[in-house]
Amino acid sequence: MRDLDELFEAFRRSEFRSKFRLSPRESAYLREKGLDVVLSHARDFIEKRLAPAEPANDGRQTPMHNHPVFIAQHATATCCRGCLQKWHQIPKGRPLSDREVQYVVAVIARWLLRQQTL
Ligand SMILES: [Zn+2]
Fold it and tell me: Tell me: the pLDDT tens digits for 24-76?
């Protein structure tokens, strides 16, 4: 787990990570549902698709479209266990702790909040 200011500075410098934006439809969904509801979906996705020691289809479990959380996951390298290990120093091969799940949700929340104010 990393310091969030430092982490977001690194995303800004990454050509790949910095190009993700919500589509108008994903933006509208976030506005209509509100951040709290969308973050409850984030927690659910993370617990099912990322938290197990060996997630199903790891590396391909996060779609590129259709939910604001999926876009946030690609933008913040919380899309799969390989990216979590590389960017967030959370090792693969073991389940995520509750604290790590909370950390991933906090990273996604910060990215989504910033999108709302752009
Ligand atoms: Zn990934």
Answer: 999 999 999 999 999 999 999 999 999 999 999 999 999 999 999 999 999 99
Q: Residue 55: what are its φ and ψ, rounded to 5°? A: -65, 145
- The C-alpha angle with vertex 111 and arms to 9 and 52, in degrees rounded to 5, equals 100
Which residues surround the ion ligand 1 when the cut-off is CB under 5 Å? 79-80, 83
State the distance from the centre of ligand 1 to the C-alpha of 60, rounded, in angstroms: 8
What is the rounded distance in angstroms from the CA atom of residue 106 to the CA atom of residue 33?
18
At 67, which amino acid appears? Answer: H
Distance from first CA to last CA of the chain, Å, rounded? 26
Contact 8, 110 (CB under 8 A): yes
Is residue 78 within 8 A of residue 51, CB to CB? The reply is no
Instruction: Compute φ and ψ for 51, nearest 5 degrees.
Output: -70, -30
pLDDT value at position 118? Answer: 60
Residue 55, by phi and psi: left (phi above 0), alpha (psi -120 to 50) or beta? beta
The pTM for the full model equals: 0.95
